[in-house]
Design a protein that fits this description.
By secondary structure, this protein is α+β, with helices and mostly antiparallel strands. The chain folds into 2 domains: 161 residues, no CATH class; 85 residues, OmpA-like domain (60s Ribosomal Protein L30, Chain: A). The protein has a 6-stranded antiparallel beta sheet. Strands 9-12-10-11 form a 4-stranded mixed beta sheet, covered by helices on one side. Strands 2-3 form a two-stranded antiparallel sheet. The two termini are 24 Å apart. Keywords: Signal.
Length: 264
Amino acid sequence: MVKLGLFALLGFSWASFTFADSLGVESYRDAQLVKSRSEQAVSVEVPLAKIQRSGRGWEPEKVERLTGNLVTSLYKIDRNALLTDVYQHYYAELTKNNHQILFECQSRSCGSSNAWANNFFDDYLLYGSDQSQSLLVVKTASSLYQILYVNRRGAGDVMVRLDQVAMPNEDMAFVNVMAQHDINDIPRIRRLLTDLPAGQSVIGFVTSQQRDRESAVSVGDRYIEDLISGLGVRLAEKVRFINLADMGRASLGVDRVSFVMARP
């Protein structure tokens, strides 16, 4: 699993916490998650230049090919939002802590929006004017690659695509699991949180799996909502839940929540 600055997440509000936030990126206000998926050990092309024609198709002039664990999220933001505000928000999120910018382009310097949407990202919902698009690619100190594409659709909505790719060997061996419970075992989870020392908080890593047509990400989000509801406000304030979906280590199980102590 991805080794990230998870402890930095503790300052975020419950209302703004989404699956993207579980990887350290706070969503733009009122952003609606359209879809999200996760894949393990997949081949990924990280774009490092504008997109151009290549033979009968389209591809970036330069890419870095790697194999890693991929989390892809697509967000829709109200048409009244300023495109520059949306991009600057995500730019600030992705470049904090001196993350390395591998590539950035805006407007026509990125190439064809149609090619990015339909050929590279394979998602027509990203298609918009060439002049209104922005692309940002960064790499964190923990070798997490983050690919951001922002554009405004013809209907006016702002679409945000965020791909995050981590190396398979970047796991969570650094955390010390203090307790692990079935996702539905609310009584034991309540007892664990009640017995915490004064001022101590924990992080709960939630694992899940796909069910019928519901993705593992959606199942995990639903689990977290049920946990918060079952714990009540007082106990919920002591824990930050992180949705690992089906990308957790085998030792974290499935449909379970694993707790680690949060740093003061």
